[in-house]
Amino acid sequence: MMGWSSKMYFMGLSKADRKKLETEVVSNAARLKLTRLVRQRCEIRHGDGDGGNIEIINRNQMVNTARTVLGLPIYRLEPDDMGMYMSEEFAWHAAETELIMRRPDTPQLVETLGDMLEQGMLNVDAVNTVLSEDNSSVRFEAKGFDENVSVKLLSDITIEEESEDADHPNIRLLIERMEGTFEKKDYAGVLHASATVFETLAKVVFHNPDVEKGTLGAIFEGYRKRSELPEPLLDYILDTYRWRNTEPLAGHGATKEPSVTAKDASVLIEITKMCVRLERRLATQEIDGIAQVPNSAGAPPPPKPPAASNRREKRKAAKPRSKGRS
Question: Can you give the pTM of this predicted structure?
Fold first, then answer.
């Protein structure tokens, strides 16, 4: 009688790790490198006449692995009577392959990578190299004879040791510092950390090495054009940066006492984390062609009245496109 396999499969993130990763940003540059790993795994460069079929089957497996994590319908690949696939199938799978690493938020991305590594679709060392170069706290391990895949989150100290020469620090690390500063009742330090998170987020969204040495004030208008955040939130980010620059002990040394209160710091922490999550979520909706709410609608009011600014032109809502049949 055949027994059940005792192999320990990757079972996803714990609730605690998922919560930690909500504010971690994996850059577009890293997602592109991960996409290239996926392309390489799918392609059949040298083979027999079935190479095209094998390639689309590979793509279908990777696409459905990613769609399962996102809770999307599974795409059932069916050949014609001759065992071949229509050109439309190849086109759809090629497009979906490009979205595998771009569509998910960070916790979903990590779980997608974990599932693919567990099934041998990707290489652990190659994935970890990309994550390390992006200053991510996520690392994968394959242990034992069966190479069981697990995920670990690096400590702040380890991240700092790995990324001493990095262009920007990890956003999750900065948010943890911001929360730690609040616990120490250093509310001016919270303001400083919040502005640093916003500056780092702007550089990630900007995705241009030429801006890495610039201040948030110097690059802000370029960030405004590229950001998906509503205008009131963008104004709040700029006001926070300006506040940091004038507040005693937040942007510079001073003999005056800082004016930042515990209430101010609490609001800063929550809005900072919300902006990080929202920037990614709105960018994902743009990728999938989901119609957007105009920037001026539904935005939470900032705690301090922002300076008046011109509203951006409303984006044209994109038409939803088919995600495949279930």
Answer: 0.68
